[in-house]
Specification:
heterodimer; A: alpha/beta; 8 helices; 24% strand
Chain lengths: 255, 257
């Protein structure tokens, strides 16, 4: 069986700063993989490379066995329809009401009629626990937790095959974080999607993943089933998951 | 050695900037001619760019026409040529001041607004979100603004021209004791079709410059609130300078004898 997503030797540098230095990662179909790592280790760059927002300098990215590293235009749009993404700050379009945010990919990306797209949007909002009244508010009127839910509804609106979660619990209180974790698990299962998340919240990482990979120094330095993270035998992973200041990882203070 | 390295770095930065802008312009133009064209968004932008700019363009045109009449009268007075006021006002407004004043007003109003809006979308990842929703940000954000500005500006300028001439008329008739009927007759007789169309062509180009600069600076803003502030400033400054530079080039080309 071909892997859903495969990264082979992906490299990216910004000026003199090497961010990704040969990332190899395989994500099986319908699995949930979490990439952990400190701030500025290239977690976001990894996801953005898969999405084509950032073009890697070297390496290959395969989705369903298809090389998407250098595709553009209509071919890129076709592949993008497989993806949904929940952004760290939700990234809702503040010029549009909530329902149009959720229905955006349906209306613009797939040409679904507005009335029908609105019905789908309201269904998806119900799935993340938001009532119909919310659909006609503007995103600015919502709390951070509600915005995350709307972002999640938007990510799953078009029943994507692959969903990315960028720091899904950052900036939320512990209870809301747990609610979002539960929603991630249930929605991913619901649409039968493959999930790739990046986070530094270990509680969230343990809960939503079945495989964890740790990114450090531009490489995946450890990966394995979530259950084995406590027995990794890797000093970097040990330091990270226990949040110790002392250890082999030296935090760069200057970006 | 360091001195030369600095020069080299500065030159490279400028060239990189020009290259990025050329690439961006190419993408935007390609977006204009390839489907889908978001007509709903174009209409919304025309209202924001065109309709809501009417008061500011109208007011500035009125005062410009008025002051032009006054200056020509006072200047012409020195060699007994006060009577030339209607002709100079209509020529100055339609060929030059109408489109340039409208362009500069739009640069302040619209380029700033576009850069701030798109810049905020950029730093809050809304532009990345568009990509993940299988929507090309250039087509969705840039093309409607450029098309709307290129269509709106000549219309705005035509209205501004009329109000500018009216400003000259009001000052001349009520302040300088011109005869109203002969003022209007002189205006209409003297103005050529070319004077008006050349101004409207300029206006369309200025509209393109303003929308492009707003979008380009917005798309390239980074680093939060300060980055968006810088993008806004750069958009206004760059479009104002480019409008005046383009004005000279266009005048040389359009009135090439």
């Amino acid at each position: 069986m071909t892997a859903k997503i495969q990264l082979i030797g992906v490299k990216k540098r910004f000026g003199p700063k090497v961010v990704l230095d040969g990332v190899d990662l395989t994500i099986e179909k319908q699995s949930s993989v979490v990439i952990i790592g400190g701030s500025g280790t290239g977690k976001s760059v990894t996801i953005k490379s898969i999405l084509g927002i950032i073009r890697p300098d070297a390496g290959t990215i395969l989705v369903d066995g298809e090389d998407i590293t250098h595709i553009n235009g209509a071919a890129r749009d076709r592949v993008m329809r497989k993806f949904g993404m929940l952004f760290q700050g939700s990234a809702l379009f503040d010029s549009l009401p909530v329902w149009e945010n959720v229905a955006f990919g349906l209306i613009q990306g797939r040409g679904v009629a507005r009335a029908k797209a609105r019905d789908i949007a309201i269904q998806k909002l119900a799935k993340v626990g938001l009532s119909e009244d919310v659909a006609f508010l503007s995103p600015a009127e919502l709390s951070g937790g509600m915005q995350k839910r709307v972002g999640l509804a938007r990510a799953i609106a078009a029943d994507p095959e692959i969903i990315f979660f960028d720091e899904p619990t950052t900036g939320l209180d512990p209870i809301m974080a747990d609610i979002i974790n539960d929603l991630i698990i249930s929605t991913v299962k619901d649409v039968g999607a493959t999930a790739l998340s990046i986070t530094h919240d270990m509680v969230s990482a343990r809960k939503i993943s079945d495989k964890i990979a740790m990114l450090y120094g531009g490489k995946i330095i450890w990966q394995g089933p979530t259950g084995q993270i406590d027995h990794s035998g890797n000093p970097y992973v040990e330091q990270f998951i226990h949040g110790r200041a002392e250890g082999p990882i030296k935090m760069a203070v200057k970006a | 050695m360091n001195f030369f390295a600095n020069i080299g770095r500065a030159v490279l930065t400028v060239l990189a900037h020009i290259g990025r802008l050329a690439q961006f312009t190419g993408q935007a133009l390609a977006g204009v001619v390839s489907p889908p064209l978001y007509t709903r968004l174009i209409a919304a932008q025309m209202i924001r760019i065109g309709y809501f700019s009417l008061p500011v363009v109208g007011l500035t045109a009125f005062f410009t026409g008025g002051v032009l009449a006054l200056q020509i009268y006072l200047g012409g007075n020195r060699f007994g040529a006060e009577a030339i006021v209607p002709q100079v006002v209509v020529l100055g407004i339609t060929r030059e001041l109408g489109p340039v004043i409208a362009g500069l007003m739009i640069a302040g109003r619209v380029a700033a607004a576009i850069a701030a809006e798109i810049g905020t979308m950029k730093v809050t990842e809304q532009i990345d979100a568009l990509t993940t929703l299988a929507t090309n940000p250039i087509k969705y954000l840039v093309v409607p603004r450029i098309v709307a500005a290129v269509i709106s500006m000549p219309i705005l300028t035509a209205i501004g021209d009329s109000i500018g001439v009216l400003g000259g008329y009001v000052v001349s008739v009520y302040n300088l004791d011109f005869n109203g009927t002969s003022y209007l007759k002189n205006t209409v007789d003297f103005a050529h079709q070319d004077d008006i169309t050349s101004g409207l062509i300029k206006a369309a180009v200025f509209g393109f410059i303003v929308a492009l600069m707003g979008c380009y600076n917005g798309f390239n803003s980074k680093g939060g609130a300060q980055g968006v502030g810088n993008a806004t400033t750069n958009a206004v400054v760059a479009s104002s300078i480019l409008i005046l530079a383009a004005d000279y080039v266009l005048t040389a080309l359009l009135f090439h004898k």
